[in-house]
Amino acid sequence: MSKTASRRYVMVLDSRKCIDCKACVVACKAENDVPLGRFRNWINAERSGFYPRLRASFDPEQCHHCENPSCVRVCPTGASFQREDGIVEVREADCIGCKYCMVACPYNARFFNEETQVVDKCTFCAHRVDRGELPACVETCPSRVRTFGDITDPKSPVHALLEGRRYRVLKPQTGNGPQLYYLL
Amino acid sequence: MDRRLFLQMVGAGGLAATSVACPRFLSKGKAKAEPAAPMGIPTSCELCPNKCSVLAMVEKGRVHKLNPNPENPKSRGMLCARGNAAIQQVYDPDRLKQPLIRVGERGEGKWKPVSWDEAFDFAASKLKAVKEKHGPEGTLWSSTEGFQEVFFKNLGMSFGSPNILRHPSLCLASVNLAYSMTFGTVPSFDLQNAKYVIMAGANRFESIITPDTMDLIGGVMERKAKFVYLDPRFTVTASKADEWYPIRPGSDMAFILAMIQVIISEDRYDKVFVDQWTLGFDKLAEHVKPYTPEWAEAETGIPAREIRRIAREFADAGHRAVFYAGRRSSWYQNDFQMRRAQAILNTIVGNWDREGGMVPNRRVAKGEFMFLPWDDPKASRVDEVEKAFPLTSAKDGVYLPLRENVLKGRPYPVKAWMIYKQDPLHSVPDQGKTLKMMQGMDFIGVVDIAMSDTAWYADVVFPESHYLERTDPIEVMPGIWPAAVLRQQVVKPIHDTKPMLEIAQGLAKRLGLSDYFDYTIDQWIEAEAKELPVENGLEYMKKHGVVAFSEPKYGTTRNAVYRFVTKSGKIEIFSERLAEAGHDPLPAYASPVQPPQGRYRMILGRKATMTHAALANLPWLHEHTPENDLWINTDEAARMGIRTGDLVEVSSTAGTVRLKARATEEIRPDCVFMLHGFGKKSPWLRSVHNVGAADAVLLETAWDKVSGNAAMHETFVKVVKV
Amino acid sequence: MHEPVWEFLIVNYLFLGGLSAGIFFVSALCTWLQTDGQASYPRIARAGALMAPWPVALGSFLLIFDLGKWWRFWKLFATFRWESPMSIGSWLLMIFTGLTLVNAYAWLTEEERNRLFAKLPAKLPFRQKLMDFHPELAAWKRNLAMIGFPFAVGVGIYTGVLLGAVQARPFWNTNLVAQLFLFSALSSGTAALILARVLDKGEKDLAEFRFLYTLDICLILLEFFIVLPYLIHGQLSVLAVREALGLVLGGRYTFAFWGLFLVPGLLAPLAIELWEFRPVLSGKGTLHITRNLALTAAGLVIFGGYVLRYVFVFAGQASGFK
């Protein structure tokens, strides 16, 4: 396998399989030292209907690592940046904590970390990905909701899923180009 | 699709995630040293009975993360929220850090930290005093399953007590007995290949069982298996089912019998299989005649046409159709018979030992450590299990009948209670009675990792090392994907704690039983590892944490010479042994008593983050459910003027609690529900101390007639707005 | 809805920045407008010049200390990111604040400067140099006004663009927000100068008040005719914008918007000022200034300006796409 010039990491979610078990959330907490009460990832639960005709659906969400991340655009110091592989990160040393990125994120995916005093968010576990591992949430998921990979690689499982299945992205109208793909 | 694909792509093929030290690119093309992938220490999770394989990542002597170990096919390469949160048990500031002896009144919370010697001396003198006065049978040894439970149990047995009380009668005793009585063994369900699955109350997507939960979600969502689910509550499992029926509580057996009736009357059963392998089918055909879908509709509230259709679809799916046994405590006093009905339904469609059906378990062989045996106890058990429940497992005992007897001092007094890894104040119905039983004891000793409510009421508390701090015996997990797993020490104990074996040895020394515990954990494991089906078993185990068979085997019992381990050697649809013991030889239905006007049936259930009483206190789990509340149907709540968030008083004949109400559409109007693990008395469980309410306070004493298993859905409660 | 991440400090900052911009703008206008080679309204110009630096300085000070890591604020000036409104704005604000300070210095009399320098510790080596340094700055006043105009307007616009540039918040994401904030800032600045002039014990000139009133009435009307299309156009826009406007049309911020901003903070002062201006409009007399009415009108304008920013900061964050 040669070192390819460009990679683009994305996540494909089959939320029909999500059982709201919070394994991803707790795994992320441990992996990334996320403070109590703050979350890098979460599960949106939607419940509706009247007994006995009821419905519930669960959609895991986190930073969408957008193609045109508005958080990166508005950052006054360049602390929010996008890697060449698409992962959006916050460089802690450069963040002044102005929270403009938090306001600008259509997904409310960022939070202010009181422990580090800078803005924090999902990094797709870039430190793990760089070692050839999967993000903690992907690895731990009991019901295999999540698939992570390089969309530019035709052999990647995410590639196959997005070619073979219909999907949606959240809030496409903001023009951010979100890269969490939800299978239909 | 499979996560391993990604790994193969990025790293070396097929290896464990963390052992792939092979990064394929460098960030921003800087020529810096490649970050080495850290190696995890393989061990086995202890937060629930699934024993999933994990890789503990240690940074600077501290466990930083637990990753799933993909080598164990049973745990399906995952680790749930509870497993991930285990780290917090180790570093819990409120953890038990050294032995404690009570100095105030019981439950007053005045403790004296003592040395291990003091604690051992104290406990041994108390145990000896009880033994002198009441004999060894005056001591009770209760525990929940765990890898080191064997040492605790052995201590009780070598001490001479017949009263070893294990957890099955609070758990799956009725299921196990019903399937054993039918098949001579307890099979597993091949949900990975089933095409039609019916579950009754087994909330598999919230109370996770490996590999069933993972296989079912894949089956339902990817392979289009049909999934029918019965539950009075709209659980996550209900939300994923193709069909959900909020069945009238206690009427599951009516549903099953009607299905059998349809399948037999319409000739849809597997004739060849029934003829060749079973006993008593004709009697069954006669027996179920009155159990028509129309009859069942009146009992279950599920329309007859739906029952009929489901029965047909089920039979048509044949050996790939399963009525899932479920695995949790009994619900009703007829629980055994209901499970028997399930077993029979499964039998007549011929799914026995077939792909996608009910498959007898395989085991990974392991060796046994030979220790010095002791004499059998002279006295009989205090729960009189042999007499009252002759079919059930006598060695495990029956919890609730035992408590009744001890409270009455019958047939003899029990005055000392040793408890390992169990919180009877929460895991046993009717907390008031359990407290009373504790108050009647001359001595109570508890071994635990945290100050549980039961520990709070004990006389001496022995702090056990956490699972990440100790090495345990090798555990064999039978199944379609059987495994043997090792739990090995990941970090040194951070406090003055000991594993159960050393606690047993400390007590044994003072009780004159040292000869029975004359070994180390390493010797024990070495003996076990010798017969593992791999080369250098011990070394392999330490490196991988698990030995497993990843390919299922079907049909091993479907041959001419196979004899089922039943009296007749066949699958016993009709059971003579049941008849002899005075029970129905074929499951006969009796309509359950329904709550009177103004009362609600209290039902129990779990949530993926909160299954066991000990879990609610872990901050990473607790933050998702800060408090438990009482689910009550919106209409009923409105009638009483109760709104979500209002404080309500809930009472049964056993007790009264107060907690917040949750008016919801997601429960039957005649039931209420609350989550387990809250309303703790122990202030050392700071997240849940006096937060919410404990279900055990309300639950009344009732048990399944055949197995003696606690029946948890037999309590009616009154709800009043405060 | 998630909790707001920007709170009152940002409201204060936007308000104070805008106020300074408005004060400077009016002051500069008064410097620039000349009658017979002399500034037309020198008293306004001087009052404005001396007032302008302080609100923005206070606002920036508050903002810096609201940062997660305030000591890193210099990083704002280690880079220039033209894509980030905050980066542009930080530079703008810094230059603007500097300009207002220089401008204020330029408007000090020699005596005042000496009094100021006299307060410096006697040991400072450059103290005497400063006291002896008397450049002819009067000529610079006009140049400073000219240079300052775009920065004042820039700062006024920036406070709106900071919000308006956020696509994720439909309540903000319209080109009208920048104008609205600009005119509101200018109006607040005008009102602040009306207050200053009314409260000034010295000599007063009706022409000054006529100028300020004319300006303020125009600015309030401009503001009003931005608010109006903002609401109407929003109603005709896509669902997300309609839902966002619902926050002030029946939602959580309805009272603040109508009951605190629009009626008392915009229309009431407009009415008062028009009432006072009535004789001029009808051509039947001269402007009459009632001290209390003038103070009330100016006070309400400033109050309205503050509430406007409060409503926008909070309602905007509560808006979003589904």
Radius of gyration of chain C: 21 Å
Number of helices of chain B: 26
What is the tally of beta strands of chain B? 27
Q: Outline of chain B, from the CA principal axes? A: globular
Query: What is the beta-strand fraction of chain C?
Result: under 5%
The CA-CA distance between the termini of chain B, in Å, is 52 Å
Helix content class of chain C:
over 70%
Low-confidence region ranges of chain B: 1-35
Which chain pair shows the most residues in contact? A-B, 56 and 69 residues
Q: What's the average pLDDT of chain B?
A: 93
Can you characterise this structure?
The complex is a heterotrimer of chains A (184), B (722) and C (322). Chain A is α+β, with helices and mostly antiparallel strands and 184 residues long. Chain A is 20% helix and 26% strand. Chain A has six helices and ten strands, in the order E-H-E-E-H-E-E-H-E-E-H-H-E-H-E-E. In chain A, strand 2 (41-50) and strand 3 (53-62) form a beta hairpin. The longest helix of chain A is centred in the N-terminal third of the chain and has 10 residues, at 23-32. The two termini of chain A are 32 Å apart. The mean pLDDT of chain A is 94. Chain B has 722 residues and is an alpha/beta fold. In chain B, 30% of the residues lie in helices and 16% in strands. A seven-stranded mixed sheet of chain B has the order 5-4-17-16-15-6-7. In chain B, strands 22-26-23-25-24-27 form a six-stranded mixed β-barrel. In chain B, helix 5 (149-158) packs parallel to helix 20, helix 9 packs parallel to helix 14 and helix 12 (293-300) packs across helix 13 (304-317). The radius of gyration of chain B is 26 Å and the shape is globular. In chain C, 73% of the residues lie in helices and 1% in strands. By secondary structure, chain C is mostly helical. Chain C has a two-stranded antiparallel sheet. Classes of the chains: A alpha+beta (184), B alpha/beta (722), C mainly alpha (322). Chains in contact: A-B, A-C. Chain A binds chain C through residues 70, 73-79, 94-100, 102-106, 108, 112, 117-119, 171, 173-176, and chain C through 2, 5-6, 67-70, 72-73, 75-76, 78-79, 81, 83-87, 90, 162, 165-169, 238, 240, 317, 320-322.
